Amino acid sequence: KYTITRFIYLSSIYPILRCCTKYSSLPFPVLRLKDFTRQDATMTCNIEAVIFTTVKNRQICANPDDLWVQNAILHIHKVDTL
């Protein structure tokens, strides 16, 4: 089963900061991904991550070092340029 993103939400007032706290344990099918953002490791967000948005607007945290993640990013860039 896929792990949907585990976020912690941190905010005193604004803006709300979301942080991935762990990675999905399985690769996600690239055809079900539509977008992504990157999370840098900071004092607040302690891991680097790629946050994918699925076609159903769910978010999945992924390890940027995993080959499937790098291939998914390339696929999304390719689709965006068509």
From TrEMBL:
InterPro entries assigned: Chemokine_b/g/d, Chemokine_IL8-like_dom, Interleukin_8-like_sf
Supply the Gene3D superfamilies for this chain. Answer: 2.40.50.40
Kindly state which keywords UniProt assigns to this record, in alphabetical order. Answer: Cytokine
Give GO terms for biological process.
Answer: immune response
Question: Secreted: present as a keyword of the record?
Answer: no
Give GO MF terms, alphabetically: chemokine activity
Query: What residues does the Chemokine interleukin-8-like domain cover?
Result: 16-76
GO terms for CC? extracellular space
- Keyword Metal-binding applies: no
Family annotation (Pfam families): IL8 (PF00048)
Protein's UniProt name:
Chemokine interleukin-8-like domain-containing protein
Q: Which organism is it from?
A: Sinocyclocheilus rhinocerous
